[in-house]
Amino acid sequence: MNFNLSEEQIMIRNAARDFAQTELLPGVIERDEKQQFPAEQIKKMGELGFLGMMVDPKYGGSGLDTVSYVLAMEEISKIDASASVVMSVNNSLVCWGLEHYGTEEQKQKYLVPLAKGEIIGAFCLSEPEAGSDATSQKTTAIDKGDYYLINGTKNWITNGNNATVYLVIAQTDPEKMHKGINALIVEKGMEGFVVGPKENKLGIRGSDTHSLMFTDVKVPKENRIGEDGFGFKFAMKTLAGGRIGIASQALGIASGAYELALKYSKERKAFGKEISKHQAIAFKLADMAVQIEAARHLCIKAAWEKDQKQNYDLSGAMAKLYAADMAMQVTIEAVQIHGGYGFVKEYHVERLMRDAKITQIYEGTSEIQKIVISRSILND
Ligand SMILES: Cc1cc2nc3c(=O)[nH]c(=O)nc-3n(C[C@H](O)[C@H](O)[C@H](O)COP(=O)(O)OP(=O)(O)OC[C@H]3O[C@@H](n4cnc5c(N)ncnc54)[C@H](O)[C@@H]3O)c2cc1C
To answer: I need a labelling partner for 134 at 20 to 30 A (CA). Which of 29, 30, 117, 272 fits?
Structure first.
């Protein structure tokens, strides 16, 4: 058992920390207010290799391990969770899915530019009536011989407008239920594919969340990922890894808020002393530090299991459940420690509190994580 990070892992963490401070922190409040996608910053993240972190260098990636990815996600999320969700979707859902299940042609055509960050991708599973219950897909992909014909609507799609490549999950054969679902690669600009308006959100407001409409969109057969009927399994496999990304996003949001609260508590005076010297505040900080450290261990354990090619379904779900709920609690306390200043934008903690909420909802709500965990421990 060795808890030390490697030199390379420390270097990646420091690089992400520097990038977040110099490139993401300036303008983060304004982007949140204006719901502005961090386009320039995402481009630079691509150039630095943060958008294809775990992809094999032969496909344009950085060839790093999942532990490094967790460390980088934490650092980016401390400052800008709208940027880190782009990173998470591109790395853990789109690139990972294509690298593991795509054909060589699909990898050359789509994975290489995605891993280099020249383009970004989106993962399209949710629908107006299919969220947690992802088997209830209403979007259809009818087999027409050389191509599939897609019709339907996807909801809440991250990178909805800024993506170039969309992995779309759709029902081909309803009689086979979830075994009749396919995952198809759709390109922006394909005829009949329309991006809806941007959602006006509580948090991660800089991220680009849209509904997508498909009307008779023709997708060539070679754009199907895996065998016929593999789509649902593909979605579940990618989401299992995605949870590690979102867990580290929650971890970063919490540790960002904690660091701000710690600093503030040593500066702000009340009743003749720093508020950190009041036990009620010191104990809050102690609780926050313990919870963050516990979440960090869960995230790194899940990442390590993934790197060791072990099953990480349970550890990933545990990490996401715990880190997301913890991020909500910690950010609320960070606002409390800031008093009235916590309630205004320039102190950052109110944004982190709003951003924390989404980690309990997307890529499987906290309730769904409990289903995954309880099924696993009960051996169902
Ligand atoms: C900002 C944002 C970005 C997103 N990005 C993406 C994306 O890129 N791609 C994508 O495909 N989706 C995306 N989503 C969708 C997200 O994954 C879904 O919102 C989420 O899975 C929940 O689905 P739902 O909204 O339909 O809620 P529902 O499934 O309707 O759930 C409503 C409530 O019921 C609970 N519930 C449901 N079923 C059960 C059950 N069996 N037992 C106990 N409780 C249950 C849920 O936990 C929740 O509290 C995004 C959502 C948001 C808000």
So the answer is: 117
Q: Is 358 in the pocket of ligand 1 (CB under 6 A)?
A: yes
275 lines ligand 1 (CB under 6 A): no
Residue 271 pLDDT level (bands cut at 50, 70, 90): very high
Tell me the two tokens of residue 61.
């990636």
- Beta-strand ranges (E) seen in the chain are 121-124, 140-143, 147-158, 165-171, 181-187, 193-198, 209-220, 269-270, 273-274
Span 204-257, pLDDT tens digits: 999 999 999 999 999 999 999 999 999 999 999 999 999 999 999 999 999 999
Q: Is the CB of 166 under 6 A from ligand 1?
A: no
Q: What is the pLDDT of residue 1?
A: 84
- CA of 365 from ligand 1 middle (Å) equals 6
pLDDT confidence bin for 379, thresholds 50/70/90? confident
> Is the CB of residue 292 less than 8 Å from the CB of residue 255?
yes
Torsion sign (Cα): 167, 124, 178, 238: positive
pLDDT of amino acid 143: 97
CB of 181 within 8 A of CB of 169?
A: yes
